[in-house]
């Protein structure tokens, strides 16, 4: 089964909706993406056609680290977000939410097939060597030469410094709690 099929099957089985008007597909140039399905060549769906919905239970963020008996959005949403257990639950009020969200993704990636989100995570680019990571932060040495002296070069350096600082602070907070972050979460 392809990664796209696995993702679609999981997404729908867990309450997501993806219209028959679109399909998940993969290409070397674009990675995994959504595009119009062949049905659109012969049919015009109504303007109000629902293309995609994703239930809160499929989302992956810092919200997954909140204790399962609490919510910041009121009691009606208490059990809509899937709770993760583990070390990161100790950090939900310690490091910024956007940083914690990154660590939740890393933790789930490290779990591999044991992660509930594995069909989604399996579709994400893997490393700097993966051609699908074509954003400036992952440019090759040769590509970086093309942007030297431009604002892009400075932006790359600024973003890398910021992310490194956020990672360092988060790892320090984990280490302060005996979580050995430097062993698990490497830059």
Key terms:
187 residues; mainly alpha; 2 domains; two-stranded antiparallel sheet; two-stranded antiparallel ribbon; 6 helices; 36% helix; 9% strand
Can you give a write-up of this model?
The chain starts with a helix and ends with a helix. The chain has 6 helices and 4 strands, in the order αββββααααα. It has a two-stranded antiparallel sheet. Strands 2-3 form a two-stranded antiparallel sheet. The chain is globular, with a radius of gyration of 20 Å. It has 187 residues and is mainly alpha-helical. The longest helix is centred in the last third of the chain and has 26 residues, at 151-176. A hairpin with a 3-residue loop joins strand 2 (22-27) and strand 3 (31-36). It has 2 domains: 1-54, no CATH class; 58-184, no CATH class.
Domain module count:
2
The overall strand count is 4
Tally of helical runs? 6
- Secondary structure class reads mainly alpha
Mean pLDDT: 86
What is the string of helix and strand elements? HEEEEHHHHH
Oligomer: single chain
User: What percentage of residues falls in helices of 4 or more residues?
Assistant: 25-40%
Report the major sheet: 2 strands, antiparallel
Principal-axes shape call: globular
Strand content of the residues, in percent? 5-15%
Major β-sheet strand ordering: 1-4
Stretches with pLDDT under 50, minimum 5 residues: none
Q: What is Rg?
A: 20 Å
State the distance separating the first and last CA atoms: 32 Å
């Amino acid at each position: 089964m392809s990664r796209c099929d696995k993702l679609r099957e999981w997404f729908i089985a867990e309450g997501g909706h993806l219209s028959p008007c679109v399909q998940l597909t993969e290409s070397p140039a674009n990675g995994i993406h959504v595009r119009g399905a062949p049905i659109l060549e012969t049919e015009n769906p109504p303007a109000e056609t629902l293309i995609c919905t994703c239930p809160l239970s499929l989302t992956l963020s810092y919200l997954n680290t909140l204790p399962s008996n609490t919510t910041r959005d009121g009691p009606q949403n208490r059990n809509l977000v899937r709770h993760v257990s583990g070390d990161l639950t100790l950090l939900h009020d310690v490091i910024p939410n956007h940083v914690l969200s990154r660590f939740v993704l890393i933790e789930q990636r490290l779990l591999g097939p044991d992660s509930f989100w594995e069909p989604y995570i399996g579709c994400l680019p893997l490393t700097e060597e993966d051609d699908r990571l074509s954003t400036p932060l992952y440019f090759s040495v040769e590509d970086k030469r093309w942007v030297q002296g431009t604002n892009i070069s400075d932006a790359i350096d600024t973003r890398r410094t910021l992310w490194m600082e956020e990672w360092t602070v988060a790892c320090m907070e984990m280490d302060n709690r005996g979580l050995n972050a430097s062993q698990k979460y490497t830059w």
